[in-house]
Amino acid sequence: MSAHLNYNHLEIISTLISKNYANSFCQAFSVWVKEISRITRVYRRIPSAHFLNYVSEFIFIIMIVNYTESGWNIISQRAHGLLAGQICFNLKAKLRQEIWMETIVATIEHDDVFYEYENDESLLNNNGGPINFKMREFEEKKCEKLLQMALSKSTYIALLTSRHIQFLHDDSEDQTARKYCQNLKKTDKKWIKIAACTADEISDAYAILQWCDAFSLLICQQLIQPENRKIEISTGTGNLCYMLYTPKPNVLTVDPWPFETDSFEIHYESKTISKLEFKSEKEFRNLLISTMPVTHRFQLTKH
After folding, report:
1. Whole-prediction pTM value?
2. What sign results for the dihedral spanned by CA atoms 279, 60, 49, 294?
3. Alpha carbon of 178 to those of 1, 166, 168: distances in Å?
4. How far apart are CA 259 and CA 55, in angstroms?
5. In degrees, to the nearest 5, what angle opens at C-alpha 40 toward C-alphas 222 and 144?
6. What is the mean pLDDT of residues 45-49?
7. Residue 225, Cβ neighbours under 10 Å: how many?
8. Of 14, 81, 122, 144, which has the highest C-beta tally within 10 A?
9. 241 versus 40: which is more confidently predicted?
């Protein structure tokens, strides 16, 4: 990796938002977008049309944080993963892998190691605002825990989890991350024999996981474009480019249509906290736990 996201830009944005410095926020956001554009030009294999894939290149997710008029809108990793699983569950039968249940489980749990309610998580930035998923870097202990959680279910799920870790960190500037991914590739060869599958089958299954992950992140980050404008999800199985758009509020459609039925519902929960700055992670965590969730529903319909 020859480019690196300047996380200070995100810290600046968080500070400016919390202090309601609207003009300065716009300036800081402009700087951040230019940095993102530079990075996406380096990653030629990543479409530059959306925020999904380059974010996933080098960081793990802890929680998704959106700033709204009502305050911090927070979606947990596990809620985002569940939404990705709903998308995966509804794919056409011809796109489904032979080991389909495990593929769905791996999609739901691909980053489940991050749990916002546990005391060992870092939830706040230096300015007292919640850490968005874009601010996390490689953590070997988290990767190991995630793999052990996957192995406790099946070797096949561990293989997909391993592929996800490699997708995130294989091109990292962090030498520890790159070495970790190199070791995973060696372990994958042993696991493929145990799971009695092929490397191509794992690659096809992971392409589905990554596509559903990207789709879910677009929704959770509120990146769906208004006025019927299309946004790229990512390149899925068969090397097809899938576009997402909304013909009317809370109705989504995908072109080309990859799902078994012509219409179905997906949903996820989020929590909104009006307080913008916190003195401690305990204060933030307690408020997050006690806040009632809101369910967001979308109808996916073929057009």
Report:
1. 0.77
2. negative
3. 10, 8, 10
4. 26
5. 75
6. 35
7. 13
8. 14
9. 241
Strand partners, 90: none
Rounded CA gap, 264 and 33, in Å?
34
User: In whole angstroms, what is the distance from residue 288 CA to residue 79 CA?
Assistant: 14
DSSP H or E stretch at residue 266: strand 263-273
Alpha carbons 282 and 77: distance in angstroms, whole number: 19
Tokens of 158: 């561990």
DSSP string, 112-155: TT--TTSTT---B-TTSSBPPGGG----HHHHHHHHHHHHTT-H
* 72 three-state secondary structure: strand
For residue 167, the one-letter residue type is F
One-letter amino acid at 30 equals: S
- Single out the residue of 188, 185, 240, 186 nearest to residue 211, CA to CA: 240
Question: Which residue type, as a one-letter code, is found at position 211?
Answer: W
Q: What are the residue boundaries of the structural domains of the chain, listed by start?
A: 7-301
pLDDT digit string, tens, across residues 84-121 = 999 999 999 999 999 999 999 999 998 777 666 666 56
